[in-house]
Amino acid sequence: GSGKTTLLNTLTGRNLSHYNHEGVVLINRQRAQIDTIKSISGYVQQGDLFVPMLTVKEYLIFMSLVRMDRKKFTDHDRNRRIDEIITELELTNCSDSRIGNRYDDIIGTGISTGECRRLSFAAEIVINPLKIDAHQSIIVIL
């Protein structure tokens, strides 16, 4: 109710057609274009939107195919990046597990809630090669 999602949508240029908005976004005191902001930021939705039948690794491969420039990244680069992310975010033990759906007994419960959150984050950083420490919490509070 305090407008956190609206603020994030505005800052990252998402869903702006629903809002009247004015102003500029500055990064390091420089005016930033929406394309620049999108290229250096990630956005993890509050609710996870996964394909429950895919494994963790299959989902990241799918996201990389959709989001990574195929002219800039080879299959080898993409697969190496996915393997790095799986290791960094401690998803190795579930990388071959179906994501599942905790609300569907037919598909199965799949990976844990914590693994789902890390997978959401992984899908965002698959195109931005950030160096992260999975033991440190990365939290933004608005």
From TrEMBL:
Molecular function as annotated in GO: ATP binding; ATP hydrolysis activity; ATPase-coupled transmembrane transporter activity
Compartment(s): Membrane
Membrane association type: Multi-pass membrane protein
Residue ranges occupied by any ABC transporter domain in the UniProt entry: 1-129
Annotated keywords: Membrane, Transmembrane, Transmembrane helix, Transport
InterPro entries recorded: ABC_transporter-like_ATP-bd, ABCG_transporters, P-loop_NTPase
One Pfam family per UniProt: ABC_tran
Gene3D superfamilies linked to this entry: P-loop containing nucleotide triphosphate hydrolases (3.40.50.300)
GO CC field: plasma membrane
UniProt similarity note: Belongs to the ABC transporter superfamily. ABCG family. Eye pigment precursor importer (TC 3.A.1.204) subfamily.
PANTHER family referenced in this protein's UniProt entry, alphabetically: ABC TRANSPORTER G FAMILY MEMBER 28, PROTEIN SCARLET
Protein name: ABC transporter domain-containing protein
